[in-house]
Amino acid sequence: MARYTGPVCKLCRREGEKLFLKGSRCLSAKCAIEKRNYPAGSHGKDATFKRGRSSDYAVQLREKQKVRRIYGVLERQFRRYFRDSQRRPGLTGENLLTMLESRLDNVVFRLGYAESRTQARQLVAHGHFNLNGRRTNVPSVIVRPGDKLEVREGSAKRPFFKSLREIMGDRMSPDWLSRDTSHLHGTMVRLPERRDVEMTINEQLIVEYYSR
User: Fold this and answer.
1) What is the pLDDT of residues 142-158, one digit of tens each?
2) Which of 28, 44, 63, 88 is positioned for an S-S bond with 38, CB 3.0–4.6 A?
3) CATH assignment of the domain containing 125
4) In a domain, 167, yes or no
């Protein structure tokens, strides 16, 4: 399946806000938003080409694209998540965010085992983690309460994971996850809720987009 491989800072500039796609770089002065907070391209900064008020459709589309880019999900998969969210009890928008937060690559990122979701997806795809004792290399696996995630014994000896123990202590994991830094283990304590989503997201706009 195709995946975007271009410059990710370009995506942040298109949305006009930090999506934290490059880990620690997004917190530094090198962040593209800090220097060029306008869309890429020859007309990005030219006020002559700026439009007036965006249509409702455009606002809904931009919100949907922003969330897709934050979690690194393609359109077909994102649409499937939305359909599944509609079938579940509760609010569709909140169900959607819960599913996205429960993805294995996002859980790896939120535990502090990777600097970004992109890096977390790569680590999972390379088979560095066990889920409930079994090796898994599928980033889209949905983690459920009680599931245990651990760095595989062979992978834990690699320089990346050895240094990870020293730096991950500075990153706090959310309270819906339990983390054992010394053994590189993590457990999902409960399902993530709407209040656990750190990014500024208006999920109702996404619901309106797909309900047209």
Assistant:
1) 999 999 999 999 999 99
2) 44
3) 3.10.290.10
4) yes
The DSSP output letter for 49 is G
Whether the Cβ atoms of residue 118 and residue 153 lie closer than 8 Å to each other: no
CA distance 74 to 66: 12
CB atoms within 10 A of CB 64: 21
Q: Is the CB of residue 133 less than 8 Å from the CB of residue 156? A: no
What domain range is 161 assigned to? Answer: 103-188
**Residue 207 resides in a domain:** no
Query: Residue 177 — φ and ψ, nearest 5°?
Result: -125, 145
Q: pLDDT digit string (tens) for 51-71?
A: 557 799 999 999 999 999 899
Quickly list H helices, the chain. 8-15, 32-35, 56-71, 75-87, 92-101, 104-111, 117-125, 159-167, 203-210
| 127, 168 contact by CB (below 8 A) | no
Q: How far apart are CA 212 and CA 208, in angstroms?
A: 6
